[in-house]
Amino acid sequence: MSAVSASLHPAASHHLPSFITAPGETDILMVVMAVILILAVLGFGILFLRLHTLPERIAHRGHKLQFEIVAVLGLLALFTHMHIFWVAGLLLALIDLPDIGGWLNRIGTAVEKIADTKPDRSEKSAESTAAEERSMPGPKRASAKAKELIHA
After folding, report:
1. Most exposed among 64, 121, 123, 148, judged by the fewest C-beta atoms under 10 Å?
2. Whole-model pTM?
3. Contacts of the segment 139-144: beta carbons below 8 A, 24+ positions apart
4. 142 pLDDT exceeds 80?
């Protein structure tokens, strides 16, 4: 008998399963499982991060006013592991908040127009003033408007 043909131990089974490799050979099952494990961890990580950024993507896609708040809530949820921040961000991303700032700007503009009207102005109608401005040449019209803004 040569040294290469090693004899089996008397207590060993004579039939070994195919996944058991001989000493010194590459363990194919271990290599395949390592690749599957790496792919599973990467896949789970990508899925987690995609799910985690879902509220931000919803708010960004809808051009929501509260996008920055949703983004901050997402970061808080990521770093503190408190899921309530993520849920709050998701709910905020799904809700359409009214544009109160636009309403307030329009109200402010209207109030400024009302406040600028003075009772001692001449009795000219708005139509005759507009007709006079249209009859003026371009630069003269611009200077007349500038004077009117300065005196107002």
Report:
1. 123
2. 0.50
3. none
4. no
